[in-house]
Amino acid sequence: MSTLFNRDIISIGDLSKDEIQAVLGQAAEFEQQLARGERATVGQTLLNRVLATVFYEPSTRTRLSFESAMNRLGGRVVSVAEAKTSSSAAKGETIYDSGRMLESYADVIVQRHPATGSARALADAAGVPVINAGDGTGEHPTQALLDLYTIQREGAEGGALRSLDGLHVAMVGDLKNGRTVHSLSKALSHWNVTLSYVAPPELAMPQDVVSFVQSRGATVHQTTDVTAALKTADIAYITRIQQERFPSVEEYLKLKGVYVISADVVARAKPGIAIMHPLPRVDEITTDVDTLPNAAYFRQARNGVFVRMALLAMVLGAV
Length: 319
Ligand code: NCD
Hints:
The chain is of the alpha/beta class. The chain contains 13 helices and nine strands.
């Protein structure tokens, strides 16, 4: 049984390098089983288990891919999609109380919430595993796992997963408020990587993340020059300017559109570069990129199902 059995997944730092590799390996196993048409076998994995998804912030991919993952494993899902307005939180219920209640409704809970630290608070209250699906500007560990899986798959020959050692990953956009890049940076720092952080000074990567990845041996470049960074990067990880984290619309408008990746930009980048994005995109990747072989973001979203299947199966002790 996996060492992840019965564990909370709050920060990507909760997982060792071996555990991360085990999740990615299990994700590949589920992907292959489904590709071979073994739906019925896969669908026995979590029979009679229940997942609760509780989302206090908007989500399409994360919630639906968790729910799809649970369904593909044969489990069942109970869900509050707009917890802010439609759950008892709107009546003033605390995270602690909802955790005490949800533990009797589900075997595992996936929560997204606008407050950093909210996933930890729920995990402390609930007696069943809690998976953080995004806590404010904090972390988004399951996105980091599917991002790693995608990076390995994009460069892979013949279906194998490529090594992450030696890769140069450029992260572009709102590195201050984007939780996906915080978790992905920490995850990548288990390997020997070069990270280019491309952002205007107002949206720079928080210093605690920079110091953390440097302490693990990653080479870090901070720059505002996206064209130069993409000339040597193997992966360009583009992010949305996180409008909802800005104090005012005016502040947001000052930085909106600061980096736009078009087919022209890709043509001047390192040949074979993979363009990733956690989605949703606003205007930071133009649609003429979508038809290029470099555009990995829809494949990335698809990979979320396999990675979340692996995580659910491991946390619930089925594999
Ligand atoms: C991201 C998030 O919610 O942090 N979306 C996602 O889960 N794929 C990125 C974003 O909202 O910009």
